[in-house]
Amino acid sequence: SIDTMIPLKSRTLWNKHQVKKFENPDQFEDRFISHVETNLGRSLYNCDDLAAYEATSMALRDNLTIDWNKTQQRITARDHKRVYYLSLEFLMGRALDNALINLPSHKGDNSGTPSRDTVQQSLDDLGFKLEDVLQQEPDAALGNGGLGRLAACFVDSMATENIPAWGYGLHYQYGIFAQKIINGYQVETPEYWLMNGNPWEIERNEIQVPVTFYGYVDRSNNPTSSTLSPAEWIGGERVLAIPYDFPIPGFKTTTVNNLRLWQARPTTEFDFAKFNSGDYKNSVAQQQRAESLTACLYPNDNFVQGKELRLKQQYFWCAASLHDIVRRFKKTNRPWTEFPDQVAIQLNDTHPTLAIVELQRILVDLEKLDWHDAFNIVQNTFSYTNHTVMQEALEKWPISLFGRLLPRHLEIIYDINWFFLQEVEKKFPKDVDLLKRISLIEENGDRQIRMAFLAIVGSHKVNGVAELHSELIKTTIFKDFVKFYGPSKFTNVTNGITPRRWLKQANPKLAALISEYIQDPNDDYLLDTSKLTKLTQFADNKEFQDKWNKVKLENKLKLADLIQKCYDGQDIINREHIGETLFDIQVKRIHEYKRQQMNIFGVIYRYLAMKELFKQGLTKEQVAKKFPPKVSIFGGKSAPGYYMAKLIIKLINSVADVVNNDPQIGYLLKVAFIPDYNVSKAEIIIPASDLNEQISTAGTEASGTSNMKFVMNGGLIIGTVDGANVEITREIGEDNIFLFGNLSENVEELRYNHQYHQKPIPKELEMTLRSLESGMFSPENPNEFKPLWDAIEHHGDYYLVSDDFESYLATQELVDQVYHNEQSEWIKKSILGVANIGFFSSDRCIQEYADTIWNVEALKPE
Ligand code: F58
To answer: Positions modified as N6-(pyridoxal phosphate)lysine (predicted)?
Structure first.
């Protein structure tokens, strides 16, 4: 036991002064005031909302830290296997409300146990509004989009499911940029999210992990000079990795896991050469460079750039994390062969693939294990999640760049490849083409390391993130690996989302209505989401439908407020008609494959068709029959260097300008672009949707997760047969989703046809593109949007907008008809969606990972 190492006298004293959690409102108030007056150095007289946010957060963090300590001690005492989730991105959003929801009794049950309600009451008594206090918190936006938010949902679920798990990532000073829209264009501004400090993190200066770059490999002590035997890497540059720890609470459990984010710091090492030459300024500059290593998140979504600093970030993070993991394992005094019984490491995409190589280096060079024994351990430890089949998002590193930064790691990769190719050759003799295709090194032109291939070879399991996607990777990008390893190395874990944040926190009114009707006053359905199916019995119930509708209306009003704020007070949405106005929403990163361009083309077509009817002399009422009131809402960031995506943003804003200011159209059609889409805005936007757009070209969106969030909030999907839409349809029933468009199995042929035959463009699209060309939306520069019509008409229409446009419009027409003429049917679909979305809880994902990939069991608090 760890206890016996501490003298009895000290133990007794520590026990006597055991720190206690606040366990009732009075104790919370005590903590709150104490934090205000000591940690913040403020008082009753100058405590503003920000200070109230900080003090509330510190009080909650105290509680979490106490449980955090217990959780960690329990895992260590039991010698339990730990899961490490390595992700370069954690898109956490805000922490305070989440912590409040996870309080032991989250509803006022009069027992005095603290809950969100009692904290709200206390704050009220102290003179603060919880709503305003929550607004003080900046989003922790350390991610780009789906991949980063998935990691955040997963750490939430791992804690809730009592899986002993740590997340490892980087402590960026600047997360994703803040997006401003100026004259319709995206402008990126840096967001220093730590401006006011961060009450949720614990900086651990007592842990400093040195990380090395560059230099050379020294083999002078190694007579065989084989790369397979231990070598010494003499590094050229050295920085320190300092951890920042974030407590991750679970729901209805006292398990608190850890999210550890590393930050780079200069070493205090003293450069004599520079000192002696009197070059003090330069040695300071060099130290400052160290800190810039983790300064900023790369803002690309589904695209890789291949920059040296990015590779440095990756190695820095992998080396620091593995050092930590290995140190923890070594304390158990177990033999190395047991490492995979104690440690499971999940690679969130290929960004942490270097961890595979680093562990092999540690085992061979530092721990002197036999090369093959070491690699066995490595393979049994790691598993890899793929999130894309798109070529431009698959990581490859030029050998020259890589070898300069990490000379010893390059040798190890060559050796891994050498043994791997020998096995391939043994199984498929003389298939030179196969060897070329499957090699970890791409040999055409500039030689590059294929990181996905390295991740496959170094792992025991590879998974895709939705059924369709997991099948696609087996038949396309990883086909040869299926041939070599057999299909069992490849598996599927369909993505999920945490219902705590995406239902309870984002949509408290809907959550309350649900718990009332399914008679679940303790919100157990947030743990066992299959309980949501009890809603089915109320799908036709008039009274329930009315209440359901009322919640939606309130959420739409809240979104209308947000939009008004974004448009400097200009009220775009007509509140009088809001109940009959369909909110059609597409929020996600802007990317051609996600096809926001098709959405806005649909809006333009609708506008042109409406104008035509007016021209024919129809009245507003008559036009409304054909085109009932609708708001098209967009949100999302473009990568700063992605020209086409930025042009799509500009087009949306230009169309909004014209349409919103057309008095003839009025409230019948409005367009809004919400700037700076992020997690906390998503929590307002998603609950307000009637319809949401999941319209990627079939086969391109690996899973999508906002599709799940929208349905969980009573939104209906208009979507293609892509990603998780397929399984959502299976779960909620095809009557409750609007599917359209070509199937993924036809995409290749359609693209081929575009290349070799001039296919006529459907007339509705033709009309739309010509309106762009006429300068209708860019009178000063009619050619502004030329690249958008050229992409379709002259560059092969890679994303198949022209192939799907007609069925998209037809399906939108069907949507209008159901929404306006069969209101009760619409609400029924909405209810049935929520009733059957339970499968997409990220708790289910974590159970699948735990059972089929990590081989780890829950460790419940006693
Ligand atoms: C996303 N990938 C997928 N990548 O596009 C989406 O379908 C899926 O639901 C989600 O992962 C979760 O599995 C994604 O977000 C990135 O943003 C990477 C960031 C770093 C560079 C490469 C793309």
So the answer is: 709
Residue 145 lies in a domain: yes
ipTM of the complex: 0.99
Number of structural domains in the chain = 3
Atom number of ligand 1 nearest to Cα 351: 20
Separation between Cα atoms, residue 555 and residue 686, nearest integer Å: 9
- Answer yes or no: 705 catalytic: yes
CA–centroid distance, residue 147 to ligand 1 (Å): 4
Share of the chain above pLDDT 70, in %: 98
Nearest-atom index, ligand 1, CA of 495: 13
Residue 850, in any domain of the structure = no
- Per the annotation, the verdict on 589 as an active-site residue is yes
Alpha carbon of 301 to ligand 1 centroid (Å): 6
Ligand 1 surroundings by CB, under 6 angstroms: 144-147, 150, 300-302, 304, 387-388, 393, 465, 495, 701-705, 723
Here the tokens at position 252 are: 């209805």
- Position 320 scores a pLDDT of 99
Q: How far from 621 is each of 295, 520, 584, 611, 675, CA to CA, in Å?
A: 56, 45, 21, 13, 33
295 and 151 in a common domain: yes
User: Does the residue 860 lie in any domain?
Assistant: no
Q: Locate the ligand 1 atom nearest the alpha carbon of residue 723 and give its number.
A: 7
Q: How far is the CA of 521 from the centre of ligand 1 (A)?
A: 36
Q: Which of 385, 705, 768, 811 is catalytic?
A: 705
Q: What is the pLDDT of residue 105?
A: 76
pLDDT of amino acid 391 = 92
In a domain, 816, yes or no: yes
SS3 211: strand
CA of 297 to the centre of ligand 1 (A): 14
| 65/83 same-domain check | no
Q: Within 13 A of 421's CA, how many CA atoms are on the CB side?
A: 18
So what's the pLDDT on residue 271? 66
Q: What is the pLDDT of residues 398-421, one digit of tens each?
A: 999 999 999 999 999 999 999 999
Residue nearest to atom 17 of ligand 1 (CA): 301
Query: In terms of domains, do 254 and 330 share one?
Result: yes
**Do residues 773 and 676 both lie within one domain?**
yes
Nearest to 310 by CA among 89, 107, 512: 89
pLDDT for the residue 375: 98
pLDDT at 275: 67
Does residue 627 sit in the same domain as residue 520?
Answer: yes
Range of the domain at 42: 22-78+100-136
In which residue ranges of the chain is pLDDT below 50? Answer: 108
Strand 82-86 with 165-170, pairing: parallel
Q: How far apart are CA 715 and CA 544, in angstroms?
A: 17
pLDDT for 317 = 98
The answer to whether residue 620 is catalytic is no
Ligand 1 atom nearest the C-alpha of 393 is 22
Let me know whether 477 and 520 are in one domain: no
Q: Is 81 annotated as catalytic? A: no
Q: What is the CATH classification number for the domain harbouring 741? A: 3.40.50.2000
Active site residue 31: no
Are 91 and 108 in the same domain?
no
517 plus 476 within the same structural domain? no
C-alpha of residue 497 to centroid of ligand 1, in Å: 14
DSSP for 93-127 reads E-SHHHHHHTSSS-S--SS----HHHHHHHHHHHT
Decide if 161 contacts 250 (C-beta within 8 A). Answer: yes
Domain boundary among 493, 527, 557: 493
pLDDT, tens only, 746-781: 999 999 999 998 889 999 999 999 999 999 999 999
- Whole-number Å distance between alpha carbons of 668 and 645: 27
Q: How many CB atoms lie within 10 A of CB 392?
A: 10
476 belongs to the catalytic site: no
What's residue 707's pLDDT?
A: 99
Question: What's residue 136's pLDDT?
Answer: 98
Residue of the CA atom closest to atom 9 of ligand 1: 704
The answer to whether the beta carbons of residues 832 and 732 sit under 8 Å apart is yes
